[in-house]
Amino acid sequence: MLWSLLRTWFLATSAFYALRPAVSAALFLVFGACELLRMCLGVAAAVCLKGRSVLEVRERTEEPECLRDPALGTHEFVTLDDGVTLHYVTAGSRERPMVLLLHGFPDIWYTWHKQILELKKNYWVIAPDMRGYGQSTKPSNVEEYQMSYLIDDVRGLLQSLGRKKVILIGHDWGAVVSWCFANKYPQMVDRLVAINGGHPDAMRQLLQTSLTQMLKSRYMVAYQCPRIPEAWLTMNDFAKLTSLCQSGDGAQGTSVLQYTFSKPGAVTAAVNYYRATFCEERQLRNTRYRRLDVPTLVLWGSRDPYLTPQVAELSRRHSPEALVRVLRECGHWLHQENAPVVNEAIEAFLAAGAPADTVEKAGLRRCRSSL
């Protein structure tokens, strides 16, 4: 009898673990299909109420004044070996250590303006428009937004600037690229700061095991559909796009987004980051992630509507010496929502070095972890 029970338990457990990836994938697709349906209904309702003009993109030729602020640095361009041209802003002395700021969706270099003003005092700061964004090249093929291309962009930019070592600070997609770059080129990364952007392996695990994260990430599936996501984000003069960025940057931040994404192909290029993720899913699944010995700081807004705190904790396991700090009153854009605390945390981490107790004493007490 006991043997039969043990055998039944073993078979049931084996079946559960064998079927879990397929069941999780099916659930994720269902959640995504529901989100796509919501988008379709939203677009249809807007067109019915206001006409097709609701989908028209208002042409904006005058750049917002804040993008020309000389205090934020000078604007430069570099063309990489594959023909992609990256626009970037440079501030601070070239004689100092380099800090590379990588933005996420749907942002441009300007998302870092509150950090540039502080970090340029002690570092050479480089804030690029990632490929597909701002004034950088917008490839038309979805495959050209795969992670391997994004990593090569970072490496090419560093080589063009004559640097073999860099401090990487990334938010959202920029953080994901930073994790992957550090995994492939650990010798080129002096320190890593990830702001509300998880390690890809952490996201993979949670999208197989966490219903909460599946629900939060359901838009990723909806974005695989052509045209509908662009219409959803564009309608009513980018109302949905700007509502995503509840960063506290007000009318100025809204004007930057409206100007940026009014350019031809800009919205599609941004959404293609998510489409390319599904194109390379097999490649990422087979990637071997090494233990990162790079000193790492993970800053996390506990009210993030798109990522659970578990993403931060699982990401930390890829860098055992990493510090995780959660800001309880912040959401996804905590580097804008609470810039003073974020800047203080970054500067203390960069100045103090890797030991956790040293960093804690140096000024991270205000960002106590809740994990």
How would you describe this protein?
It is a single chain. The protein has helices at 2-50, 113-119, 147-160, 173-184, 200-209, 211-216, 218-222, 228-244, 250-261, 266-279, 281-285, 309-316, 334-337, 339-352, 356-364; strands at 74-79, 85-91, 98-102, 124-128, 166-171, 189-195, 296-301, 323-327. With 371 residues, it is α/β, with parallel strands linked by helices. Strand 3 (98-102), helix 2 and strand 4 (124-128) form a beta-alpha-beta unit. Helix 1 packs across helix 8, helix 5 (200-209) packs across helix 12 (309-316) and helix 8 packs antiparallel against helix 9 (250-261). The longest helix has 49 residues, at 2-50. It is globular and about 60 Å long. Residues 8-19 and 354-371 have low confidence and may be disordered.
